[in-house]
Amino acid sequence: MRLFKLPLFLLLTLVSAVSMYVPASYALNQRDHHIARSFFYSGTLTLILALMIMVAISNRTIRQSSLQQLASLFGAFTVLPLILAVPFYEAVETTSFMNAYFEMVSSITTTGATLYDDYSRLGGAVHLWRAQVGWFGGLIVWIAAAAVLAPLNLGGFEVTASAEPGQRDTHLSQMQIADPSKRLMRTTLRLLPLYVGLTAVLWVGLTVMGSAPMVALCHAMSVMATSGISPIGGLADNGAGRLGEMLILCFLLFALCRLTFSNDTLTTSKGRFYRDPEFRLGLLFVLGVPVLLMFRHFGTDETLNSFYSFGDILRIFWGAVFTVLSFLSTTGFESADWAATRAWSGLGSPGMVLMGLSLMGGGVATTAGGVKLLRVYALYLNGLREIEQLVHPSSMGGLAARNQRLRRKGAFIAWVFFMLFGLSLALVAILLAAMGIGFENALILAVSALSTTGPLITFAATTPIVLSELATEAKSVLCVAMVFGRLETLAIIALVFEAMDQD
Description:
The chain is mainly α.
């Protein structure tokens, strides 16, 4: 408990310093002494500085409110990458510190965009560090959603009825009253074993299926954090094949629903995954979009003369299902059969489909980014209610069981978020276009950054966008957009108003 009473940013710095010894040990095992020294010295220096600060404030009573923890969370995505970039910069040597900082912001926000198209340029330990930072960022987001954002009614919780006065559940009310440090401790002790355990299970499973241990570990961490970071550029040559993709798909389903630790969204205390509207809406997209792509085959003249066996059709459908779920969860892994799916459906460039899925995003309080399925569901219920009123103008709404956990003004708040997200998207795209980037590429970059789906940059464009060729100003804009996309605009606005009130 004394450890969790430390300022959240200092606690994250301590964890980051200790985690630098992992790639250092791996590099030492690979006899890459320069990279091993880079991570070992950086971790040791950071740990010493953090411990000195901890000793200096040990005689003070520090109480952080939820808003102060939110500010620390903002610092974790903006200031902490400066610390994380030091060993990366020292290990690579042939890069600028700005590029290293961009890489760490992209990793810790679980975006997964990379400036290094030549994966052989980075050593195995550096790739492990990228995946590890992304995994750590996903853990931060997962814990913060329950311990920081939920009591503040942010991050999608503002749509639920628990955000409305007088309609809080007992357990959520207790969390609201509890000391923020105690709430952080309880949430961490509850979620950390689950997060680590699921990652270990996926790592072992991919290794057994034929993937190299280090590649399997990076992919396992990337799937759990939905960062899409890969040391080999994707799943095509990972050695696990379709069995590995099937195993990964099972773990990607966690990004559609937050019932792994809470059942407050729209279900009762006895709710299950199949009753959760977020999960059901996500499955609707995961199965509906591939079906539409399959039927699109019969509307393209150039594919009608091709012969496909039943096994080919199953592989094509599987490629669509896996890729759709991957981008809906903002992970961004592409199935090895996705090229066959595109050929079947006649899609020249699937950019609009993938961007739409990434913007939709996954479930509330998961590691997925995007707008979130719960907000989409709130708008759907509002639209359904409006249509019902056209038929029965005197009818009363809000009595159905599906509406019991939805705030009365949930659709309005969701619409406000959509507008803020749309304005942010337009602003980022305009800024990038003003820096000489074409409109199509600027839009793809903006969607990729705000939805935290880095692989979208490679797969959505007609020709892959080379991030290393962007100017420093464009990289800075993307860094800001990635932070906004990870923390969400409403949380940033709450921090701004808190700062104005203190002034």
